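Example record for the data management plan.
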Amino acid sequence: MGLFLFNSNKTMNTFFKSLQEKLVDIIAFALTLLSLGVIVQLLLGDKILGWDPVGNIQDAGSSFIGVIAMVALYLLFKRK
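Corresponding structural encoding:
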């Protein structure tokens, strides 16, 4: 019985590690698209196919600044 639980725990760890890697890849891709959208909009000065990334960031206001601060703190603590 103990051997079964050990194998199950190892399988779950593998699953969650794989899930974490996929989520990190998806978030990195989304941030890349957002950055590209902001740069293109700043260069063109107009919405991109109806998408307004700069306007969305400006509309978010202080909540967007809070998210940036939390990400910065997470990165600082992760490096230690």
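Summary line stored alongside the record: Helices lie at 2-44, 53-60, 62-79.
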